[in-house]
Design a protein that fits this description.
Layout (H helix, E strand, L loop, with lengths): L7 H17 L6 H20 L3 H8 L5 H22 L12 H10 L2 H6 L7 H17 L5 H10 L3 H15 L11 E4 L4 E3 L7 E7 L4 H16 L5 E7 L3 H7 L9 E3 L15 E5 L5 E3 L9 H11 L1
Parallel strand pairs: 3-4, 4-5
Antiparallel strand pairs: 1-2, 1-5, 3-6, 6-7
Helix pairs in contact: 1-2, 2-4, 2-5, 7-8, 7-9
Length: 314
Amino acid sequence: MGFNYKELPDKFNSIKEEMMGKLNALKNVSENFIKFEKARLNFEYANSLRNVFYLYYAKVARREMTEEEMSNKMKEALDYFVPFIKEGLSDFNSTDYLQFEVFHSLLYDLKRDEYRNKHQLPELCDELQEYLLALNILDALGNHKVSKELLKDCSQKIKNIDYIAAIENIKNKYDVLSEGSPAIDLTFTNIKGDSIRLSDYAGSVIVVDIWATWCGPCMNEKPFFEELAQKYKADNVTFLTVSIDTKKTWEAYFKNHHVGENQLHIYRDDLSAYQLKGIPRFFVVDRDFKIVDVFAPRPSSGELEKLINNLLKK
């Protein structure tokens, strides 16, 4: 028969009210504690309704429902939940609530005008807008996609000294990775257990692929990277394939796979200077051992090959 989504608001609300009752019965606790815990319970209530996809995901996995059917059913449920979610978010406009992880999840929706309008919620307060702006800059810095113009514009809008300090700290870490800066040396281990340094390849164009066996996109890029390595074999270009797996996993991988040239290993922590947040990740260093791009395009895009060609022309 299936679960009727219209039953959810009452079911979740009964759990919330039970917890509220326990809170009210507490003695020798501050009013602030009660206030924030009640707010957290309301956020949990709204978030539980917001994440309605779990009702249908299993059915899609079992092919009992198409993704389109799931999408339509979710929209139907979320439209029904509007007044209940609005009730759970009756008090949200304060940076005090940033201490709650569930509030961060809700902010994903609350920052959207469309979502707030649908639930008849007020605009985010200036403090929360400033927080989100700072968060966006930090994310852009982390993905190396922030311009000087954006930083200048945001520096005029952000007044919170803690946010300014956090942005400046991250910016300084990325400034040393900008084009033309000296490459930061690294020490790898090859399959024989020998130590190999990145600087050992100075004098050639160096292209580095950071990957792991558990990373699907990394494995998808491998054939494209290996194709480039073969294409430029006669040129002064060195391709390094660097795994951040555990050493045991990395070594086991080559029991069933061909060990190509320059298969190397490094621990993720040893890449901290390069601000490694995710993989796959590609580095390009020129003949003078200076950074060209440590957020280089993926080989499958064709843009990495163009970058290499431009360097070989110099």
